[in-house]
Design brief:
- The structure is a single chain.
- By secondary structure, this protein is mainly alpha-helical.
- The protein has one domain.
- It is 74% helix and 0% strand.
- It has 13 helices and no strands.
C-alpha cells in the first residue's frame, strides 16, 4: 500500500466512523469502485486498519476529554455530590449500552465474517442503512433528554440498536442515534452519547490485536505509513465530530434524512456499477 492510498483510507475511516454512513461499508465499497489494487485479506492490512481505528479513538478522546475527565472525577468521588452522582450515572449507562455489543459480537462475529469483504453485500446493507435512518426520523419519539439524564433502559436500547452495525454497510453511529430517537432523545444528545460510547468500543476492538500484531513482520514494514495515516484519521475524526455535534444541534427535526438518501442512492448506484463492471 502506498502513502496516497493510506491517506485516502485514513480520511475515509476518520469521517465515516462518525458520520451515520458506515465506515466498514465504505471501506469495502470504495476501493472496489475506484479499482484500488489493495488486498484487504492480506496480513498487512489488519495492522494498518488497527492503527486507523486507534487514531479515530484518540480523535474522539481529544474532542470529549472534558466529559471523560468529569466522569473520572465522579468515579473518584471528587466534586459536589450531585455532580458526582450525575457523572457516575453517565459512566454506568455507557457501560450498560456497551454490553449488548460484547455479547452479541461473540455470537455473530464468525457467521457474518464472510460478508466483510463482499462489496455487493455491503451495497445492499448500505441501502438498508438508508432505510433505517429514514425510519428513525419518521418514527422518532419526542422528548428532551440530555446525554447525562438517560435511563438505563434508554442506554440498553441504544446498545442493542448499535449491534446492527455488525452487518457491513449498517452504520454504528447511525443505528445508535436511531435507537436514541426512538427513546425520545434529541439528535445532539443521542449523538453525544453514541460518540462517547464509541470510544471504548473502538479501543476494545483494536487494542487486543496489538500484542499479536507486534510480532508480525507486516506491522514493521508499514509502520511509518500506518502512523501517518493514524494521525490523519484522528484529525479527521475530531473535525467530523465537531461538525456533527453542531449539525445535529441546528437540524434536530430532520438531521438524518440527507444521510438516509445518500446511503440509499449511493448504495444502489454502487451496486449497479459493480455488477456491470464500471
Amino acid at each position: 500500500m502506498d502513502l496516497l492510498h493510506a491517506l485516502l483510507f485514513a480520511v475515509l475511516q476518520g469521517a465515516t466512523e462518525l458520520f451515520p454512513v458506515s465506515s466498514l461499508g465504505h471501506a469495502v465499497i470504495v476501493p472496489k469502485l475506484l479499482h484500488w489494487n489493495i488486498n484487504q485479506a492480506s496480513p498487512a492490512f489488519l495492522p494498518f486498519l488497527v492503527m486507523l481505528h486507534l487514531g479515530t479513538a484518540v480523535g474522539l478522546l481529544v474532542y470529549f476529554w472534558r466529559d471523560w475527565f468529569a466522569m473520572l472525577e465522579g468515579l473518584l468521588g471528587r466534586g459536589y455530590e450531585a455532580e458526582v452522582t450525575t457523572q457516575r450515572g453517565l459512566l454506568l449507562r455507557l457501560i450498560v449500552a456497551t454490553l449488548p455489543a460484547v455479547f452479541i459480537g461473540i455470537i455473530v462475529k464468525k457467521p457474518v465474517a464472510h460478508l466483510f469483504a463482499n462489496p455487493l453485500a455491503a451495497c445492499l446493507f448500505l441501502i438498508a442503512n438508508g432505510g433505517l435512518l429514514w425510519l428513525g426520523e419518521r418514527l422518532r419519539a419526542r422528548g428532551g433528554k440530555s446525554s447525562s439524564s438517560l435511563s438505563y433502559a434508554d442506554a440498553l436500547v441504544i446498545g442493542f440498536f448499535q449491534c446492527l452495525a455488525f452487518l457491513p454497510g449498517i452504520s454504528r453511529s447511525g443505528a445508535a442515534i436511531v435507537g436514541g430517537l426512538r427513546r425520545g432523545i434529541p439528535h445532539e444528545a443521542a449523538a453525544k452519547f453514541t460518540f462517547l460510547m464509541g470510544t471504548p468500543i473502538i479501543l476494545a476492538a483494536a487494542v487486543p490485536e496489538i500484542p499479536e500484531l507486534m510480532h508480525q513482520h507486516e506491522i514493521h514494514a508499514l509502520f511509518g505509513i500506518s502512523l501517518i495515516a493514524a494521525v490523519v484519521s484522528g484529525i479527521v475524526a475530531w473535525l467530523s465530530t465537531a461538525f456533527l455535534m453542531r449539525y445535529f444541534h441546528n437540524h434536530d427535526s430532520w438531521a438524518l434524512l440527507p444521510f438516509a438518501w445518500y446511503c440509499a442512492i449511493g448504495g444502489a448506484l454502487a451496486f449497479v456499477a459493480i455488477i456491470v463492471g464500471i
